[in-house]
Amino acid sequence: MIKDESRLIFISKDHRKIKEVKISRWKLILSISTFLIVFLVVGKFGLDMIVNSSLNSEMKRLLRTNMMLQNRLQEMSHKIKTLNGQIAKIATEDDQLRTVMGLPKLDSDTRQVGIGGSDYNYKFLDQVSGFEAKVDLSKQLRTISQLEREIKLEKQSYQSLLQTFYKKQDSLKYLPALRPVLRGVVSSPFGMRFHPIYKVMRFHEGVDFSTHRGTPVYATADGIVKFTGYNGGYGKMIILNHKYGFETRYGHLSKIVVRRGQFVKRGEKIGEVGNTGLSTAPHLHYEVLFRGKHLNPAHYFFDDQILNQQVVAKVN
Ligand SMILES: [Zn+2]
Predict the structure, then answer these.
(1) pTM flag (> 0.85)
(2) How many angstroms separate the alpha carbon of residue 238 from the centre of ligand 1?
(3) Taking all residues of the chain, what is their mean pLDDT, rounded to a whole number?
(4) Which end of the chain is more exposed for a tag (fewer CB within 10 A), N or C?
């Protein structure tokens, strides 16, 4: 019989002691295998525990983050709703301003363009995030891009409003908008009338203000003096040329204090009331023309004495 036996020999450091252990080969293999199996099982179990606990804490952290994100998204959705309401208000005010400024309203088509686009990417995001049920992320992002567009639109609209305003501000300076004399009643209005001297029906191309001789006469808008001097029935007369096609005429004056070609401001004194030309008593004959056509001057001044006085006081 072959002795299936191995020997383990232990030798002390100083070589004095020697210990010999006899062990059969299959016993050695068995014990090494047992040791390896136990080592692997325990190792795997331990490793699993470590991995699981770290995964668990990561899961918990992600869950917390997710909850927080959902809450933030809900807050955001409330804020977006508020913003939406505010922009709707701005849009309404914008429409009103545009109407006042004589600009067309922004039609709803212009406001709606671009809404609903680029849906695909947002839907994809929803699927990845898993937020779909609680927070409609795609809807929020759509609303945000809509708000972005509306804000851009409003910005453009305000710019055009501002430009229009500046343009009008300039043209308003040249629009006859003052009572040429602060006192005195309108003794003869614009239109058909029985002429006091000719004793026939004649079209009265201006309005007459009955007032004392020497009452100051003011330019009703910014402009250039086009004519001064004696002119038939008008007597001593001033013609002012304003920008944008307006012209004003002042007749029957006793005194003229401006020269031809001079620039005058609205409210600046240009002469004094008199009784020159075809006139029976001191009064101012005042005409407003637009592109050569006579307009009713009554439509081009306010009968508000305080307002008129303020305009005159600013210049003189
Ligand atoms: Zn008249």
Answers:
(1) no
(2) 14
(3) 86
(4) N
Distance 299 CA to ligand 1 centre (A): 16
Q: What gap in Å lies between CA 188 and CA 209, rounded to an integer?
A: 7
Please name the CATH architecture into which domain 185-315 falls: Distorted Sandwich (2.70)
How many whole angstroms from 174 Cα to the centroid of ligand 1?
A: 23
Q: What is the pLDDT of residues 285-315, one digit of tens each?
A: 999 999 999 999 988 888 888 888 888 998 8
For the chain, report the end-to-end CA distance as a whole number of angstroms.
143
Range(s) of the chain covered by CATH 2.70.70.10: 185-315
What sign has the CA pseudo-torsion 115, 118, 123, 128?
Answer: negative
CB 116 within 8 A of CB 101: no
Distance CA 157, CA 59 (A): 50
- The pLDDT-based confidence of 170 (bands split at 50, 70, 90) is confident
Instruction: Assess contact for 143 and 84: CB atoms under 8 A.
Output: yes
Q: How far is the CA of 188 from the centre of ligand 1 (A)?
A: 7
pLDDT of 117 reads 47
d(CA 78, CA 176): 52
**pLDDT tens profile 48-81:** 999 999 999 999 999 999 889 888 888 888 888 8
Taking a 5 Å cut-off on Cβ, the residues next to ion ligand 1 are 208, 285
Cβ(174)–Cβ(223) below 8 Å: yes
